[in-house]
Design goal:
single chain; 12 strands; alpha+beta
Length: about 230
């Protein structure tokens, strides 16, 4: 597994202190920037004003959009320690996407004006946000290229490799990803079907490359997983 930190991480940037300073003190509940969302509750919807940026302190959220036919398209699933809503910084005035809590979730909120003021005073914060936005745009480009040029099995396998690089932990020669996604979530993120995801995951398990359940994914052989794109799902 790569030793790179997730794209949202940067040394010497106190993100908790910026978004939710009272998290470091007693009485965080009194902080008006700190908000709790129930499972299934929308943080924002398409066409709403895009004037806030969010930092997840607990739980997870899904960012997505809807096609003209009303089909849901998942763009990202983000968890504790990650920032979302950042397109407000680069000219988005109305949300194009929705963000919904996947479980009980806590987030700290900062306005665009407040963030821009902080970025003017802190060069490292500006670099953090530039890297965040740039990395996510590149990730979306790779997903688009994958949709055009790669088959469903390859997309699923590459998603697992990417998930391991971003969220995995080395345990000896193996890699564990905690809070593994559902088959439907993987299908939504890879533009495949739930049945195809189930088929590919079961095949990888039968090859003893991975094991998984609802709570975690264990990759027994990362190199074998990376090369396992020849069979057609």
């Amino acid at each position: 597994m790569s030793n790179e930190k997730p794209i949202w991480y940067m040394d010497n940037i106190d993100i908790i202190g910026i978004f939710c300073p009272s998290k470091k003190k007693h009485g965080a509940q009194e902080n008006l920037k700190h908000k709790t969302f129930k499972k299934g509750e929308y943080i924002y919807l398409p066409d709403e004003n895009s004037d806030k940026i969010y930092f997840i302190t607990e739980g997870s959220i899904k960012v997505g959009t809807y096609s003209e036919e009303g089909k849901e398209i998942t763009k990202a699933i983000l968890s504790k320690g990650q920032v979302f809503g950042e397109l407000a910084l680069i000219g988005e005035t109305q949300r194009r996407d929705f963000a919904v809590a996947q479980e009980g979730t806590e987030a700290c909120i900062i306005t665009v004006d407040e963030m821009r003021s902080l970025m003017r005073d802190r060069n490292q914060l500006s670099l953090f946000m530039m890297n965040l936005i740039g990395s996510r745009l590149l990730k979306m480009e790779r997903r688009l290229e994958s949709l055009v040029f790669k088959d469903s099995r390859t997309r699923i396998v590459e998603f697992l490799c990417e998930l391991a690089a971003e969220s995995g932990q080395r345990v000896g020669y193996e890699t564990v990803v905690r809070k593994f996604y559902t088959h439907q979530e993987i299908a939504n993120l890879t533009a495949t079907s739930r049945q195809t995801v189930t088929t590919v995951l079961n095949d990888l398990r039968n090859q003893n490359i991975i094991t998984f359940n609802r709570r975690r994914l264990l990759i027994r052989d990362m190199e074998a997983l990376k090369s396992n794109t020849e069979a057609v799902a």
